[in-house]
Structures are given as C-alpha cells and as structure tokens.
C-alpha cells in the first residue's frame, strides 16, 4: 500500500505483519541508541487539525527513530486560520516534497480526500468519527503481548461508541483477527447500524462485561455532541463508569484499556486506571512501536527505495 487510511481494506495477514514488525520496533525503542535508518533523508510532516498528545508525539518519535526529518505543522498558527482550505494547505505542503504526511482532521473522510490530492504517502492519524487505524493496531499489539493471541478473546468496548473512531477501527481489526467483539453503551451513544458492524450490543455493563477478557473504555466525546448529551455525566459514571464493582463482572484476569485522553471519574475510576489490571501506560509505549512499523512498511513503497 502507498497509504494507511484505515483498518478497513487491510487483510488479516497484513495486520499481523504490521504487529510482528512492531514487536521488533519495541526492542529498538528500548535500546539506548533507539535508531534505525530506513527513513534517512526522508521528510515526514505531521499535520494535525485536531488536538493530540499521544498520536502526534509518538508519530514524531517514530519518524525520528527511523531517521526521518520530521516537521510538526502548527495548524493553530498556520494560514488555515486565515481561511486556507484543507486541500490548498495539503497542496502547499506537497509542493515542498515531503515523503510522508501524517494527518488528523475533524471530518470523516478528509484524509482519504487529501490522499488523492498529494503525491506522497498519507497516514490517517484520526478522521472525525471514522477511523484511527494506528490506535487499533497499538491496541491489538498490547492485547497480543499479554494474552498471546487475539482470536477467540472476548473484547468489550464501552462508552461513547457513537462518536468513536477508536471503536470503529477496533471493531474492524478485532473481527478480522477472530475476536468476539461487544459494545456496551447507553442507547443514546450507540450509532445507527452498529448491529451490522460485527459487534454484539449491550446497554448493561453487568451483562456486557460477563466473560470479557479485555475491557476497553472510551472517553465521552462531548466536543462531538453539540451539547446534547443524555444521560448526565453523574448518571453516566454511575451506570457506565468502570469501577471495581463493575470490573468484577468481567473475567478475573481481564485487562483494562483506554486510548486516552482519560477523564477520571467520568468513564473510569482512578483506582482502575492506575490498578494492576490496567494496560493504559503500555498502550502508549506500543503506540510508538506501531507507528514505527507503519512508517517502515510505507517506506518500502516510497519512490526510489
Ligand atoms: N489516543 C489518542 O489518539 O490520543 P491523542 O488524541 O492524545 O492523540
């Protein structure tokens, strides 16, 4: 592939190939000299129209660990603020001959559109509620390192499914690798058509968590709700916030995940986020490794390689 725009369209063997490559990148990242040179002389531009802590910094580190020259485009200080469009911004950057463009945008499909307008490789770092492919890959890597497999595990994805690109990419990837996927949410936070996406749907944490191997919590994305959030945050925490009592419904050796950013006391209790079953910090470490794997895989298809 020239781009990574989503998990949709990837074959299971391609997903597994990226996870295997990422395992090697974990080792590189843990060495004192954390460098490979597959992107030496290449230019990577990170273009984030939405805020990010984990994704942007890990793409920057991943590019640097592979030897690329990495530029972070400061969108808030750019001419986007003067009305320049996404396509004109991309065409402007494209004229500077980058090899890789890593893009996050608030509109679903924006990254696909942009990929058709530029001559470099494009990586989707999250497009609205559509896809966040590297998040799903890092989640799969984290799960596989602890459970030894993905197939036949029961994974419960809980919370704001309606607005979540993380949920969408994870449902596609986990199904491709043979997991049993569940979603748990109040009906107001379930997207239409969720039944056709390959996930069993629950509105009760008690029922949905029974027998779960992995409990993946999501943030309430109030910035995508236009003020119309039902139930209230207090009710939400009571019925859907992951605390010790609700986690006890899952398997005894269940592991807890969250893509971040977390809202402690809204979707997850601090004692669980920091507890023995939590993989949240490890997900961040795997984020760098997965992004190295993706950039390295795309490097093989860059011109003159
Ligand atoms: N998980 C995730 O995408 O986090 P950021 O928004 O901080 O990049």
UniProtKB/TrEMBL annotation:
A Pfam family that the UniProt record links to this protein: OTCace_N
Top-level enzyme category: transferase
GO function terms (MF aspect): aspartate carbamoyltransferase activity
Pathways per UniProt: Pyrimidine metabolism; UMP biosynthesis via de novo pathway; (S)-dihydroorotate from bicarbonate: step 2/3
Binding locations of carbamoyl phosphate: 54-55, 104, 132, 135, 260-261
Keywords in alphabetical order: Pyrimidine biosynthesis, Transferase
Superkingdom assignment: Bacteria
Enzyme Commission identifier(s): 2.1.3.2
Binding sites annotated in the UniProt record for L-aspartate: 82, 165, 219
Keyword Transferase: yes
This protein's record includes keyword Mitochondrion: no
Transmembrane segments: none
Catalyzed reactions: carbamoyl phosphate + L-aspartate = N-carbamoyl-L-aspartate + phosphate + H(+)
Limits of the Aspartate/ornithine carbamoyltransferase Asp/Orn-binding domain: 153-297
Segments forming domain Aspartate/ornithine carbamoyltransferase carbamoyl-P binding: 2-144
PANTHER family documented for this protein: ASPARTATE CARBAMOYLTRANSFERASE, ORNITHINE CARBAMOYLTRANSFERASE, MITOCHONDRIAL
Subunit and partners: Heterododecamer (2C3:3R2) of six catalytic PyrB chains organized as two trimers (C3), and six regulatory PyrI chains organized as three dimers (R2).
Protein family membership: Belongs to the aspartate/ornithine carbamoyltransferase superfamily. ATCase family.
Function according to Swiss-Prot or TrEMBL: Catalyzes the condensation of carbamoyl phosphate and aspartate to form carbamoyl aspartate and inorganic phosphate, the committed step in the de novo pyrimidine nucleotide biosynthesis pathway. Reversibly catalyzes the transfer of the carbamoyl group from carbamoyl phosphate (CP) to the N(epsilon) atom of ornithine (ORN) to produce L-citrulline.
Name of the featured protein: Aspartate carbamoyltransferase
Taxonomic source organism: Roseibium sediminicola
Name of the gene encoding the protein in the UniProt record: pyrB
